[in-house]
Design goal:
Elements (H helix, E strand, L loop, with lengths): L34 E12 L5 E13 L7 E12 L2 E15 L2 E11 L9 E6 L14 H9 L5 H4 L5 E3 L11 E6 L5 H5 L7 E3 L6 E3 L2 E6 L5 E6 L13 H12 L20 E6 L2 E5 L7 H5 L13 H4 L9 H10 L5 H8 L14 E3 L7 E6 L5 E3 L10 E6 L3 H9 L5 E2 L8 H6 L1 H4 L1 E7 L4 E7 L12 H4 L2 H9 L3 H9 L20 H4 L7 H11 L18 E6 L4 H14 L3 E6 L2 H9 L5 E6 L26 H5 L10 H13 L4 H18 L2 E6 L3 E6 L2 E2 L4 E3 L16 E2 L2
Parallel strand pairs: 7-17, 8-18, 20-28, 22-23, 22-24
Antiparallel strand pairs: 1-2, 1-6, 2-3, 3-4, 4-5, 9-10, 11-12, 12-14, 13-14, 15-16, 16-18, 19-26, 20-26, 21-24, 21-25, 27-29
Helix pairs in contact: 13-16, 14-17, 20-21
């Protein structure tokens, strides 16, 4: 047992000094701008037979302006160590210092030491939060764009950038321009692959997802009552075709897309909390205001996910009006529809706004489409009007283009990556191939990074509660039977699955967030029904389905053999799905497991045709703004897509859920205007319901995924985050990735 000693050092506080300026007069130092830069270092150690020790170091720096001078730095370092479930602070150092005219004055210093532990580093994670810096005096651009400027076919970079461009920090160093980033994709239904590369919403999540940061909007204000949110756009911001991006584009989205009954029969629930549609107002060309009838505390969290491709707030009005019935000449629009593959203008319009399907649509993103997902190669090229620069004033992105090869077979994708023909990709890289990725690193000239999902389940089983409303299929009754689901959960040997499929690196839990998160419902619910107990599972099933056929399979009350139909599309299910089937067979439950093409399966979800999905899921730290897995609120919410119409129409149409399933939707509504403390309690209630009812069975949690990164690719973190809510890897600022020359 490791001995821990605790010692507390007193806080030493130094008074703030007044520093003389160049004229010899004294001034009081005032904060005119605060810029937070966070650097987080995590070190992990495996101790034989013991839990993993984690050293966590957080460095925060705050830059401040002194009138007439640059600058002050506040630096905070916190080190934490976890030993056998305990967390102890090793060292905390807070240093505030003022730098003026070459002098450094210590303002305040705090040192706290509580424990020292011997450490062996095996993993190091470094992440930094994007910062907003002052506009550089001079800008630079990619050589391919400089040639166009010289030829007179493109304006100078100073004219292409907004007055206050977004400044993106880099992970390692200022990059070099040029190169083609090679990736792979699976087909027309794999649009999320592209969406993860760019996410130019008005605001975005920070790299680690802990808070929201400016993006296309340079700033915002929030009223004290949390009802009014005012966003200021960037002056002189332009679309990729050089046309102005301003408040009129936001108003076009609001009036002509979001509120258009032909395009959207039901207003999106995030824009209409508790059924009350928010009001969007243009204040001036660069200012828009969102107003709501009730306090809306989670609005910014919703808004950070409403990017160019999700709910489409950022839409180019000057381009889209030609395809919209409110603006286009009817005869001209009818001809466009007739010449397209669609029957109505609305269907055509909804396809046109998807930039991975339309190479002509202007964009604000770092790269713009040159082909579509219908082609054998999906090609993106740098946006000459992209609104971000690095800290040296170089317009981003560094990389000229991205080329994705169409490969439907994920195993072929993995082999291509091992051969060194993929520059950086996590998506569809299989954990089962991790040893092979490592073995081929030298040959393929790459490194194998790891991507983590904090508070996510790698393996889950979701039971569709809205399947077969009319109960014509006798299986539907058992999908909705809580005892049946609980028995199937404890019939699963998770330890065996973890060892065979994930090299023992996973953990076991139901749907939940990390233990230190305020939403955590407690071990009693996070670990509910996960202990392997086939004897008890048999007893529970014997009480509700006692009869069996000659093969030992349980019979339905009508005498037919019960057969569960499970479907999957996401990579990795082939590792653990058959093992679950074996465990279920051992307690008399027969099942079929079928792999589906992603697009086809999503069609089956929307049409409410599937029984069970085997998949991975997460995003629970955004429980009230990404509730796809925790409430039947949307037509792709697996736990009950058939209830979405009722919820989205506020009861005007569709079938209502009942009982605890209905309560999950009530919790979702109540949380929108709640205080943080109230939201935390609602979240815990939601998790208690989910992990008692087991609409979703958790199998394995928190396993890393492999990422292939070529050795000459810079600014890619050593360890990555893999979350859809943050558009990974886009959250790592893909525009700052570059090829070392």
């Amino acid at each position: 047992m490791r001995k821990l000693t605790l010692a507390l050092f007193a806080i030493v506080v130094f008074s703030m000094f007044l520093v003389a300026c160049a004229a010899g007069e004294s001034e009081v130092i005032t904060v005119t701008k605060e810029v937070v830069v966070e650097k987080e270092v995590i070190k992990e150690v495996k101790v034989p037979g013991e839990t993993i020790i984690v050293e966590k170091e957080i460095v925060k720096e705050v830059e401040v302006k002194v009138p007439g001078e640059t600058v002050i730095v506040e630096k905070e370092v916190v080190k934490e160590v976890k030993v056998k479930g305990e967390t102890v602070i090793v060292e905390k150092v807070v240093v505030k210092e003022v730098k003026v005219k070459g002098e450094t004055v210590i303002v305040e210093k705090e040192v706290v030491k509580e424990v020292e532990v011997e450490k062996v580093v095996v993993v190091e994670v470094i992440t930094e939060v994007p910062v907003a810096l002052a506009r550089p005096f001079q800008f630079s651009e990619a050589p391919m764009l400089a040639k166009l400027v010289k030829a007179g076919t493109l304006p100078p970079v100073e004219q292409r950038l907004p007055v206050n461009p977004l400044v993106q920090p880099v992970h390692e160093e200022i990059g070099q321009y040029g190169g083609t980033w090679r990736r792979t994709f699976r087909g027309t239904a794999d649009g999320a692959n592209m969406m993860r590369m760019w996410h130019a919403g008005l605001i975005n999540f920070s790299e680690d997802g802990s808070h929201v940061v400016p993006y296309a909007a340079e700033s915002w204000t929030v009223s004290d009552d949390l009802r009014v949110y005012t966003f200021r756009l960037r002056t002189n911001h332009k679309w990729s075709d050089g046309e102005p991006f301003n408040a009129d584009d936001i108003m076009f989205w609001y009036n002509d897309i979001a509120l258009n009954k032909d395009l959207n029969p039901n207003v999106a629930s995030w824009l209409a909390p508790n059924g009350n549609v928010g009001l969007v107002t243009k204040i001036d060309d660069v200012t828009v205001r969102f107003s709501f009838e009730e306090p809306y505390g989670v609005f910014l969290e919703w808004f950070a996910q409403r990017d160019h491709v999700v709910s489409g707030i950022v839409q180019p009005a000057h381009y889209l009006k030609q395809f919209h019935a409110s603006y286009a000449d009817k005869a001209t629009l009818d001809k466009l529809v007739a010449d397209s593959a669609f029957e109505t203008w609305t269907a055509m319009f909804n396809d046109i706004i998807r930039k991975e399907r339309n190479a002509d649509i202007p964009s604000l993103d770092n790269w713009i489409s040159r082909t579509t997902t219908r082609d054998q190669q999906y090609i993106m090229e740098r946006n000459p009007y992209y609104f971000a620069v690095d800290t040296a004033g170089n317009q981003l992105p560094y990389i000229d283009r991205i080329v994705m090869d169409l490969i439907e077979d994920t195993e072929v994708m993995n082999l291509k990556a091992m051969a060194g023909e993929v520059d950086m990709q996590c998506r569809f890289m299989k954990f089962s191939n991790y040893p092979l990725f490592k073995q081929n690193e030298d040959k393929g000239d790459y490194r194998t990074a790891l991507a983590f999902r904090d508070g996510a389940l790698t393996a889950t089983i979701v039971f569709n509660q809205s399947y077969d409303f009319d109960a014509k299929d006798p299986v539907s009754e058992w999908l909705r039977n809580k005892t049946f689901r609980q028995a199937l959960s404890i019939a699963i040997d998770r330890d065996r699955i973890n060892e065979l499929a994930y090299l023992g690196l996973g953990t076991m839990s139901q749907q939940t967030v990390p233990k230190d998160h305020p939403y955590y419902p407690g071990d009693e619910y996070a670990l509910r029904y996960i202990e392997y107990n086939p004897n008890l599972a048999n007893q529970m099933l014997d009480e509700i389905l006692p009869k069996k056929d000659t093969d030992g399979n349980r019979l339905l009350p009508n005498g037919e053999t019960l057969i569960l139909q499970a479907e999957w599309w996401s990579a990795g299910v082939d590792l653990w799905g058959p093992l679950v089937q074996e465990d279920w067979t051992a307690v008399g439950i027969k099942s079929n497991l079928k792999e589906q093409q992603r697009g086809l399966f999503y069609d089956r979800i929307r049409s409410n045709e599937f029984q069970i999905e085997f998949s991975g899921q997460g995003g629970w730290m955004f429980l009230f703004t990404y509730p796809y897995w925790t409430a039947p609120w949307h037509n792709v919410s697996r736990m009950g897509p058939g209830f979405a119409e009722w919820y989205q129409s506020r009861g005007a149409k569709g079938t209502a859920p009942t009982g605890n399933l209905l309560r999950t939707l009530e919790i979702l509504d109540e949380a929108q205007g709640a205080t943080p403390a109230e939201r935390a309690e609602l979240a815990r209630e939601n998790f208690r319901i989910l992990n008692e009812e087991l609409y979703t069975i958790g199998v394995i949690a928190k396993t890393p995924g492999p990422c292939v990164v070529k050795n000459n690719m810079g600014n890619v973190p050593q360890v990555l985050i893999n979350e859809w809510t943050q558009r990974s890897p886009g959250n790592h600022r893909t525009e700052t990735f570059f090829f070392k020359q």
